Amino acid sequence: MKHVHNKLIVTFFAIVALAHLGFITGNGHCENLRLTPVVRAVQKTSPAVVNITVARIVERGVSPFAQFFKNDPFDMFLEGGVGGPTRKFRALSTGSGVIINGPRGLVLTNAHVLAGGSDITVRLINGDEFKAEIIGSDADFDLAVLKIKGANGLPQVQMGDSSDIYIGETVIAIGNPFGYTHTVTTGVVSALKRTVKSEDGAFTDFIQTDAAINPGNSGGPLLNILGELIGINTAMQAHAEGIGFAIPINRAKRVVEELLASGKVSPVWLGLSGQDLDQSSANYFGLARVHGLLVSEVYRGMPAAQAGLASGDVILAVNGIEVEDKDAYISLLRAQTHSDDVVLDVLHRGRKEKIKVRPTSLDPQQLENFAWSKWGIKIGKDSRGNGVLVSAVQKDSPAAKLGLQPGDKIHQIGNRRLKIPQDFLDSFLRYRLNRKVLMEVQRGRNFYHVKLNS
């Protein structure tokens, strides 16, 4: 009897406690038990998640016979060939974003969501639509900031801290996959500091999650269980389920700071030149296989020199990611900002060491000077449209030995097409370590594919 009495007392206090916490309604149903931490996080953050629609003007060939086959299911085969008539079309694509500053109407999203867009519309969860403009965008970090026009009193997401993420902790992704607005998926953090390789290079330091991230989710928030923003959803692993990636919010904060200040992220460098190793040099350094960057020159006063690097050192890894060759080194460095410390694994005087160095920014004038000293090329400030105009060629430089002349137009360097002077500087930064650089050059009406030996 005493035992039953004690059970009644325990039950009574449990009911009182649940009622006090708001879990039991007047009719005794535990409806609020459904209000889980995930639901609370979604309710808290959803108003700050936006759908982004981007309009692009695309041009494609049109067959002169297409008018005779209107609404034909085989009209895809009637596109015009090279040199035939063309027609401009308005194409739409969608993505996601998250409001990071309500009073200023600032939205954080992926750069690839906006790429090539001529008209941008942002839609809130309540259906309100606003036009938006790009404040800044950087493809190397795949991040962009939009400003919503004509909106006031917007909600904003609560910023989190991606430095203390636990592997295995619950995460929430919100976005607009395949046009289904404000879709919520959940999962866990599968891994940290992942590297994802693409045709444009390597993206580093990603959060890996098994929360479903599909086309249209790009640019949306990855949240922790508290509804705090810890990442920007950016990619999914092709032909695989349960593997998605997000940019850590701490990295995104540093990028946003530069985008708001100048509209772009200033490229960085360590102040060194280098080259690939071959089998004989790998054997000389005692490497089991050919990989790494052999430092050929260290510039005085630059971060590499200040950190103690010297000509003849071999850079084996950047932030724990192996350097296969000079292209991999450039790609890994492109993923850093001037406020990021970089840890290099270096073979220095026959010993493996870890050296911490902070990159320095390169402004356009410094890049111009660097291109002039290394390649011997200056580009005219008024270059625009197709190709950039060569305004000067330095005597006895690689450009002079190639035969470039003022008045020539450079249309392509490597796999990059050039339209404005900044394209030339970006290409130089990308290919500055290459001994041979392929270019497409126009002189008069003639086009040539040439090789610059630097």
From TrEMBL:
Keyword terms, alphabetized: Hydrolase, Protease, Serine protease
Keyword Nucleus: no
Gene Ontology molecular function, alphabetical: serine-type endopeptidase activity
Heme as UniProt keyword: no
PROSITE patterns: PDZ (PS50106)
GO biological process: proteolysis
Domain PDZ: start-end pairs: 274-325, 376-419
Highest taxon, organism lineage: Bacteria
Similarity field: Belongs to the peptidase S1C family.
Name the record gives this protein: Do/DeqQ family serine protease
Organism: Desulfovibrio gilichinskyi
